[in-house]
Amino acid sequence: MIDPLAPFVEFGFMRRALAGCLALSVSAPPVGVFLMLRRMSLMSDAMSHAVLPGAAAGFLVAGLSLPAMTLGGLVAGLVVALLAGAVTRTTVLREDASLAAFYLISLAGGVLLVSLRGSQVDLMHFLFGSVLALDDPTLALLGGIATVTPVALALIYRPLVMECVDPVFLRSVSRVGGPVHFTFLGLVVINLVGGFQALGTLLAVGLMLLPAVAARFWARDLGMTMAAAVLIAALASVVGLSLSYQFDLPSGPAIVLTAGAFYLASMLAGPQGGLLRRLVRSRHLEA
Amino acid sequence: MSDPRPIRLHGLTLGYDRHPAVHHLDGIIHPGDLLALAGPNGAGKSTLLKGLTGEIPVLDGRIEVGGDIAYLPQADAIDRSFPLSVMDLAAMGLWRRLGPWRGLRRTEPAIRAALATVGLSGFEARPIGTLSGGQFRRALFARLILQDCRTILLDEPFTAIDARTTEDLLGLVRAWHGEGRTVVAALHDFGQIRAHFPKTILLAREPVAWGPTAQVLTADNLARARLLSEAWDEEAGICDGARHAGPSPLDGLVSAPAPAHRHSHGHPHHHDHEDAA
Fold it and tell me: Which end of chain B is more exposed for a tag (fewer CB within 10 A), N or C?
């Protein structure tokens, strides 16, 4: 009988990986829930790719230095978010097209930048993270993000919800809409940068969006959806890390695939609009 | 609520992309007015309401607004798939009082009372996506009640709503009128306007008439409104052309009713504009 928790008891690096992923599970999924509800899932994808050249530029300048790569990633992520918005407003391109363009450029540019100086190993670290080698500063960064995000989200919660539901109404009673939107974009970027440290740029969005999308099938109201998303992300972290240890799989993909499996299961069996519920027609009520 | 002040419109021109949709409108909306906005589709009713709320910029002229304005847009701007309860939707009306952080608990009785007033008692916890069209409109009226503004603007509030809901909501509008609030509503149903609204603005991009409803909704005025709105496309070129010519002394000319002059210049300008676009 395999004890799924044994590797965490036995190995320090597994405990660190778990701590990092759990921190990310607290902060990223609630942001993902809002991304999904605002129909901005693709935006987060583009921003995560934009983190790559930024972090790579930091890497070129300072080597594998956490502050340099974090700062580079933050700046690049925000720039792409703002640029994509500006292109949408000033040209004929719709937002999805301009985002797709930006993230293809970012991805290619990032890979090129890393290859200029780094090795194959560095490239793999950038694309898929190195959750099994989280050092103290990185853990502190993840913990900081997990602290800042829920607090900031609580502070902007009411106007953010209003902006999602009825932006016209919010504009008619208040001017906070713009600042709230940019604060939210800022939260998306810091979570992607945090996710990048653990899971790499390609998978950072995974722990943000997959639990959020899965949670939609379990809960009806917003608070419960966010709670469910956090729970699913935490479960995916534990199960994914454990599986990656038992079967000697790369851990980033294992975590994201586990989250993906939760999503598929939720889509099938979830009580709120899951597929099975639709197939099995339940008897209707009297009134 | 602030002191009752009139809303004054001075040569107000509103529009999109420089095309005027409301053209040189002058007048005063007095405090306590119960005013209907009538006119064919595209006459500028919604545009005028959006201009009054500041949703769209003024192209020319100006508005003197007195105090807070509550605004009910045509409902389709709202994302009804968002997981939000009826209670929370209505509570948005309290934003000016509560801001982003103050708690809702003490205002809960007020929210329940507003929902009861619109006939939605028992719907507090329902997600907004499960409401029927009429119920949803009632919830939006509850939000208007909670906004507690001196001036209330309604954009086609009774469109696609059944007779009973319309009757209930009209009762609410009359109650607002009784409390001395200013209500301006864009409406299509002339019978409804004649029965419930003492004053009317008849718009066809340009103001056709403004005053007591019986004197505004005459056969003559309605026919004129229809004519004006049908002439719209041809006239578009002229005024736009005048504007392209500069911040113009022509403005006075354009607003003067000189149909022959307009027609003689309509076509070339129109084509110019098409090329530019």
Answer: C
The answer to whether B83 contacts A221, with C-beta atoms less than 8 Å apart, is yes
Q: Is the pLDDT of residue B175 over 90?
A: yes
Question: What's the mean pLDDT in A160-178?
Answer: 88
pLDDT reported for residue A1: 53
Residue with structure tokens 């002339």?
B190
Closest CA to B72 of B161, B199, B11, B162: B161
Q: What is the DSSP letter of A120?
A: H
What stretch of H or E contains A269?
A: helix A251-269
Mind telling me how many Å the CA of A156 is from chain B's nearest CA?
7
Domains of chain B, earliest start first: 7-196+237-244 (3.40.50.300)
Residue type, B188: H
The verdict on A104 touching B (C-beta cutoff 8 Å) is no
CA distance A199 to A125: 9
Which superfamily does CATH assign the domain made up of A6-202 to?
Answer: ABC transporter involved in vitamin B12 uptake, BtuC (1.10.3470.10)
Radius of gyration (Cα) for chain A, nearest Å? 19
Q: Are the CB atoms for B47 and B19 separated by under 8 Å? A: no
Measured between CB atoms, does A164 come within 8 Å of chain B? yes
A2 pLDDT band, cuts 50/70/90, is: low
Burial degree of A126 (CB within 10 A; 0-12, 13-18, 19+):
buried
Tens of pLDDT, residue by residue over B183-215, are 999 999 999 999 999 999 999 888 889 999 999
Of the candidates B53, B77, B147, the beta carbon closest to that of A166 is on B77
Tell me the nearest-neighbour CA distance from A216 into chain B, angstroms. 9
B70, B84, B95: residue with CB nearest A222:
B84
Q: How far apart (Å, rounded) are the C-alpha atoms in residues B117 and B124?
A: 13
Per-residue pLDDT, B21: 84
A213-269: per-residue pLDDT in tens? Answer: 999 999 988 999 999 999 999 999 999 999 999 999 988 899 999 999 999 999 999
d(C-alpha A53, C-alpha A114), whole Å: 8
The secondary structure of chain B as a DSSP string is: -PPP--EEEEEEEEEETTEEEEEEEEEEE-TT-EEEEE-STTSSHHHHHHHHHTSS-EEEEEEE--S-EEEE--GGGS-TTS--BHHHHHHGGGHHHHTTTS-SGGGHHHHHHHHHHTT-TT-TTSBGGGS-HHHHHHHHHHHHHHH--SEEEEESTTTT--HHHHHHHHHHHHHHHHTT-EEEEE---HHHHHHH-SEEEEEESEEEEEEEHHHHS-HHHHHHHHHHHHTHHHHHHHHHHHHHT-S-THHHHHHS--HHHHHHHHHHHHHHHHHH-
Q: Is there a contact between B13 and B60 (Cβ–Cβ < 8 Å)?
A: yes
Higher pLDDT, A171 or A242: A242
The tokens describing A136, both together, are: 């103290």
Edge to edge, the sheet with strand B19-29 lists B19-29, B7-16, B58-64
Q: How many angstroms separate the CA of residue A262 from the nearest CA in chain B?
A: 21
